[in-house]
Amino acid sequence: MSKIIRVGVTFPPDLLRELDEVLEETGYESRSKAIQDSVSAFVSEHKWLREQKGMRVGVLVVLYDHEVKGLNEALIDTQHEHADVIYSSMHIHLSERDCLEAIAVKGEAEEIKKLTQELKTKKGVKQVKLSIVY
């Protein structure tokens, strides 16, 4: 049996409340199990991305807070730096603060990964999902 290592995790109160609601709805036995499953999925996704090679086509979905100072400009600059793999983008206003960008990408997997990583690390970006379809 493998050894279990205990770690501490800090959550904003709203996110923890939402996690508890999802746990109750889905029947998870504990927060630990849900977090383990989430981390496992996160690691698997990044492992998969790391192994992608060659020409790929997909969609990047970016959820962000447009009121974070300088974020809009940073997102636009990043997209311009990666114009060689961006074929189209669509901007959607979700609420007073939240926006969603759907970015169609086509190009070398390595370049798409770089774009994805750059977008994920911007302050104010809440979520980035990459779906490779081909």
Describe this structure in words.
By secondary structure, the protein is an alpha+beta fold. The radius of gyration is 17 Å and the shape is globular. The N and C termini lie far apart (39 Å). The chain folds into two domains: 13-49; 53-132, ACT-like. Chain A, domain 2 (Alpha-Beta Plaits), CATH 3.30.70.1150. The chain has helices at residues 13-26, 31-51, 71-81, 109-120; strands at 55-65, 86-93, 98-108, 125-132. The protein has a four-stranded antiparallel beta sheet, covered by helices on one side. The protein contains four helices and four strands, in the order ααβαββαβ. Helix content is 43%, strand content 28%.
Main beta-sheet annotation: 4 strands, antiparallel
Could you list the spans in which at least 5 consecutive residues all have pLDDT below 50? none
- Number of helical segments? 4
Q: What amount of the residues lies in strands?
A: 25-35%
Nearest-integer average pLDDT = 91
Oligomer: single chain
Topology:
Layout: H1 13-26, H2 31-51, E1 55-65, H3 71-81, E2 86-93, E3 98-108, H4 109-120, E4 125-132
Antiparallel strand pairs: 1-3, 1-4, 2-3
Brief account:
This protein is of the alpha+beta class and 134 residues long.
Name its key features.
134 residues, alpha+beta, Alpha-Beta Plaits, 2 domains, 4 helices
